[in-house]
Amino acid sequence: MRAARDASLRDSVRTFAALAAPRVDVLDERPAAARELALLAEEHLEGRRQFGRPLPAFQGLRFDLAEMDTRLRAAELLVAEAAAAVDNGGPATAEVARAKLYATETASWIVDRAVQHHGGLGVKVGQVVERLYREVRALRIHEGTSEVQKLILAKELLQRARG
What we know:
Elements: H1 2-27, H2 29-47, E1 49-50, E2 53-54, H3 59-87, H4 93-118, H5 128-139, H6 146-162
Antiparallel strand pairs: 1-2
Helix pairs in contact: 1-3, 1-4, 2-3, 2-4, 2-5, 3-4, 4-5, 4-6
């Protein structure tokens, strides 16, 4: 019984590994969209005033910019790690799932903050932020939802723990 279960698990891992290569290709879209949104947020803040002060003078908005940059850099590093694992030809299932999960959730967080910073303009049809908001939302579904990535990653981590 255990041998059959182990063979089934090996087959599942091979299947996930085969799926990993195409997923890395789409991962670059997430940090790219998030980077564009972060830059738009920065430019928007620099050009706006509220209560007689430039928006970057508000500490909370500065915190958001710092958080955007930090999360974005972490996402870029995870995508690079996943791409390197795929390029090396070894199992990359966990790396790809981790990168997709984090990059997608990061892009979603950044777009949400960018919309908030833009106020009403953030949801006005035809604005770049509004378009990116829709595009980033689709990325959370493309090539497996965040929940699917969590299942894949957890399965891989548990398998590694079992040896």
